[in-house]
Specification:
By secondary structure, this protein is an all-alpha fold. The protein has 4 helices and no strands.
């Protein structure tokens, strides 16, 4: 199972790296696609990590309240970097068998990407209402 989580985290990091390149090219469609792919990999990693963690352990103690920094609102690249950094931290924690802490980092990274999805959807709706 650990190998599956590590593979998902590696994929997420790669998708986030490609998303940052797409930001530089201002390719909004590609950014959305890559963020979605990274999110799905993180979602899978969360699922498998939850299976790895003993049922006796409560995941509530691993809650990481990481709100998107308000300074990031107009800086898509900073949000992507933060999500990628959290994912890399999770990989290191996974290697050390600190599954609960890895779960918290993955969840925080996933939450960053969910906020991006919400922002993308708002932009899409705003564009539709203008046309």
């Amino acid at each position: 199972m650990k190998k599956n989580v590590n593979s998902a985290l590696e994929s997420a990091v790669a998708f986030l790296e490609d998303a940052m390149k797409a930001v530089l090219k201002k390719d909004e469609t590609k950014i959305r696609e890559l963020v979605w792919k990274a999110s799905s990999e993180l979602e899978y990693a969360l699922f498998v990590l939850s299976l790895m963690i003993n049922e006796d352990e409560k995941l509530t103690k691993t809650r990481m309240k990481l709100d998107v920094n308000p300074n990031y609102k107009n800086d898509l690249g900073a949000v992507l970097v933060s999500a990628q950094d959290l994912t890399v931290e999770a990989q290191k924690l996974l290697d050390k068998k600190h599954f609960e802490e890895a779960y918290g980092r993955v969840k925080a990274a996933r939450n960053y990407l969910l906020r991006l999805h919400e922002a993308f959807e708002k932009q899409r709706k705003a564009k539709r209402s203008k046309s």
